[in-house]
Design goal:
The complex is a heterodimer of chains A (334) and B (347).
Chain A: H1 2-21, H2 28-38, E1 51-57, H3 64-79, E2 82-88, H4 92-104, E3 109-113, H5 117-129, E4 134-137, E5 152-154, H6 157-170, E6 175-180, H7 186-198, E7 202-207, H8 213-226, E8 232-235, H9 238-251, E9 256-260, H10 264-272, E10 278-280, H11 283-300, E11 310-311, E12 315-317, H12 319-331
Parallel strand pairs in A: 1-2, 1-3, 3-4, 4-5, 5-11, 6-7, 6-8, 8-9, 9-10
Antiparallel strand pairs in A: 10-12
Chain B: H1 19-24, H2 29-45, H3 52-77, H4 85-103, H5 107-132, H6 136-159, H7 173-181, E1 183-186, E2 189-192, H8 193-211, H9 213-223, H10 225-230, H11 235-261, H12 272-282, H13 294-313, H14 321-344
Helix pairs in contact in B: 2-13, 2-14, 3-8, 3-9, 3-11, 3-12, 3-13, 4-5, 4-6, 4-11, 5-6, 5-11, 7-11, 8-9, 8-13, 9-11, 12-13
Classes of the chains: A alpha/beta (334), B mainly alpha (347).
Keywords (chain B): Cell inner membrane, Cell membrane, Membrane, Sugar transport, Transmembrane, Transmembrane helix, Transport
Function (chain B): Part of the binding-protein-dependent transport system for D-xylose. Probably responsible for the translocation of the substrate across the membrane.
Protein name (chain B): Xylose transport system permease protein XylH
């Protein structure tokens, strides 16, 4: 036992001295802290009462996309003097119960995603009955109005897909592959169908298991080897673009990789030219606008959109914009 | 002349025990103490937790877990696991919805068909277990994966999308909704009907366990299967029955899902089986079988509901929820073990 302790002590001392001696002059926590200090310190810009808004999404645990939405919402909450609460569950029943809990708390506004509209119907109705204004974000543009929400903020997945199809035509592509990483996701199907609608070449679908990256890589690689005439691959999430690039290298293919959504790696890859283009739906904007529009409604009874959804995308990002976006993706706001 | 009384020592099982000892020997005592502590904690910390509407939401959340935790607890007392319990709920809802829709039948027909099919899946689990002698962990893991695939595959094949079509405008829907997913208003507070289902199941399971021959069989097969078989307990029949009990719970939960939302997502339910097991274990069930109670599983489910919603009322970061759940599981199990040791020590 005593000997074991000595070893642990030596190991700890060793690790500490190595980490002190080997400071990195680039990147890391220190660079991040410097960036944070340089950013404006958030203070409320208004003197309205401190309202409480709750946001309930269908996100799973630890999702990068929803992290950006949350950041946008928190930024707006600081500015508008809002007490902002965030909760999420990927099971429809649980998400509905979280909305119920927010209504019980008598919050002043609710922001909710309608990925599973049927399940959220009663919970949203209960919020409306309690006189709480509701704004829907990200998914549910068709149901939002019928449920009695003020506005819907998000991207129409079909329109986003069509934009990708147009861009592929512009680049003279003939044969594209759409990689779906979540079996049973309606939005993903809509994206691929949107691409097929405007794309003049042929489009094939490939279903992969998104929770297992090595599996994704081997599946895409195998497909590229099997069909060498594929000249473009469209992935539906930023983390999968990087994996598709690796798969392309494995297969020795010349196909261009394009993706939906952004992250730091995608921005860097766009700058390098390993990726063709990305389609951004600006998640930061979805969170930020949702809080801001609720505030405007409470403060001034303002409603945006004229009964139509407010679209935050699609925005095509290519090599030209990638340089400036790289900084924002590092910051975790794009 | 006094008569000499015979001082033959009584059999120890017939000795009168003090009420305190009796209480300490109850499997659910540890969880009741834990539940009280969690309740008081959130009552102080979480603003609005004690409102009637909030408590009703907490009870509803607990009942959706509890309805499944009761038969799962019985199964665990019988010494087995069911990892397919989570997706079976979704399967049951999907079958009911798609059968009614495709056949354009009264929704009660779908409900009946769903009951038969779900019970058949439960019977399949039990039959495979007793026939193959493989551990239930393996058998039900297989069923779990097959059901997950069938949920997605069949829904896509029949409906063309990943969720079922709405059956809200079909005959029998409103009466089925009244039975499985209605809301009763008591003194201005909405109470969900699942809470009644839950309490009913707890009462029924407690009666079976403590007052019937079947209950003795369940404890016997979980405690020592070979000894039970030697004294004439029908082991295979008991275990198949227990798996069908879990299927029955899955059917009730599935119908609730369907009739409260009138459309079902095919990819859901994965992972919930562990939550049911957690509720049963917190409530005093032993992983090794032969010990536990139905009331305990209900307290376990209540603990789960209070924690999951209490965190929301307390305005904490929900990222930590799983951490609290894990810590609670460990604490409750340790407390249970400690109480049981105290109870078994002869005073």
């Amino acid at each position: 036992m005593a000997r074991f302790r000595t070893w642990v002590g030596i190991a700890l001392a060793g690790a500490l001295s190595v980490s002190l001696a080997a400071c990195s002059s680039t990147g890391g926590k220190r660079a991040e802290d410097a960036r944070k200090a340089a950013a404006a310190q958030g203070r409320a810009a208004v003197n309205t009462p401190r309202w409480t808004f709750a946001m309930i999404t269908h996100s799973g645990d630890g999702d990068t996309f929803w992290d950006i939405v949350q950041k946008g919402a928190e930024q707006a909450a600081v500015k508008d003097n809002i007490n902002f609460l965030y909760s999420h569950d990927d099971e429809a029943q649980q998400q509905a119960q979280l909305v119920d809990a927010a209504v019980d708390k008598k919050v002043d506004g609710i922001i909710v995603t309608l990925a599973k509209p049927d399940a959220m119907k009663d919970a949203v109705a209960r919020a409306r009955k309690a006189g709480i204004p509701v704004i829907t974000v990200n998914s549910g543009s068709e149901e939002s109005k019928a449920f009695g929400a003020l506005t819907h903020i998000g991207q129409d997945e079909t329109i986003a897909g069509e934009a990708v199809g147009d861009e592929l035509n512009k680049r003279g592509k003939k044969k594209a592959l759409c990689v779906l990483h979540e079996q049973g996701n309606v939005g993903h199907e809509q994206r691929c169908d949107g691409v097929a609608k405007t794309f003049r070449g042929t489009l094939s679908k490939l279903y992969v298991n998104g929770t297992n990256m090595p599996d994704v890589q081997s599946a895409v690689g195998a497909k590229l080897q099997a069909d060498t005439s594929i000249d473009s691959v469209v992935t539906l999430g930023a983390p999968f673009a990087d994996t598709a690039v690796k798969a392309r290298t494995d297969a020795g293919s010349k196909a261009e990789i394009d993706t939906f959504d952004l992250n730091p790696k995608v921005a860097a890859a766009l700058k390098e030219g390993t990726l063709g283009f990305a389609v951004d739906q600006q998640p930061y904007l979805q969170g930020y606008e949702a809080v801001d529009l609720l505030w405007l409604y409470k403060y001034n009874d303002d409603v945006l959109g004229g009964g139509k959804p407010v679209l935050t995308g699609p925005q095509i990002v290519t090599k030209d914009q990638a340089a400036e976006l790289a900084e924002y993706t590092e910051r975790g706001t794009r | 002349m006094s008569t000499v009384t015979d001082h033959k020592p009584l059999d120890e099982r017939l000795l009168p025990t003090s009420p305190l000892r009796k209480l300490l020997a109850r499997p659910e005592l540890g969880s009741v103490v834990g539940a009280l502590a969690v309740f008081l904690f959130f009552a102080f910390v979480a603003d609005g937790f004690l409102r009637a509407t909030s408590l009703s939401t907490v009870l509803y959340a607990s009942s959706t877990i509890g309805i499944m935790a009761v038969p799962v607890a019985l199964l665990m007392i019988g010494g087995e696991f069911d990892l397919s319990a989570g997706v079976m709920v979704t399967s049951s809802a999907l079958i009911s919805s798609m059968f009614s829709y495709q056949m354009t039948a009264n929704t009660w027909v779908g409900v009946g068909v769903s009951l038969l099919v779900t019970l058949a899946v439960g019977a399949f689990n039990g039959f495979m277990l007793t026939r193959t002698k493989l551990p239930s962990f393996i058998i039900t893991l297989g069923t779990f994966l097959m059901l997950t695939g069938m949920n997605l595959g069949f829904t896509k094949l029949i409906d063309g999308t990943v969720s079922t079509k709405t059956i809200g405008d079909m005959e029998g829907f409103s009466s089925a909704r009244a039975v499985f997913a209605s809301t009763i208003t008591v003194g201005g507070v909405d109470v969900k009907v699942t809470i009644l289902w839950w309490l009913g199941l707890v009462a029924l399971a407690s009666w079976i366990l403590l007052r019937t021959r079947t209950g003795n069989w369940i404890f016997a097969v979980g405690g020592n299967e070979d000894a039970a078989r030697a004294v004439g307990v029908p082991v295979a029949r008991t275990k198949i029955g227990l798996y069908m009990g879990v299927a029955f719970g899955a059917w009730i939960s599935g119908q609730h899902l369907l009739f409260s939302f009138d459309a079902v997502q095919s990819g859901e339910g994965v992972g919930n089986e562990l939550i049911y097991i957690i509720a049963a274990v917190i409530g005093g069930c032993l992983i090794t079988g032969g010990y536990g109670s139905a009331v305990g599983s209900a307290v376990g489910a209540l603990l789960f509901g209070m924690t999951s919603k209490g965190i929301v009322y307390a305005e904490w970061n929900p990222d930590w929820f799983k951490f609290f759940l894990g810590a609670m599981l460990l604490l409750a199990t340790l407390l249970n073990a400690w109480v049981r040791k105290r109870a078994e020590a002869t005073a």
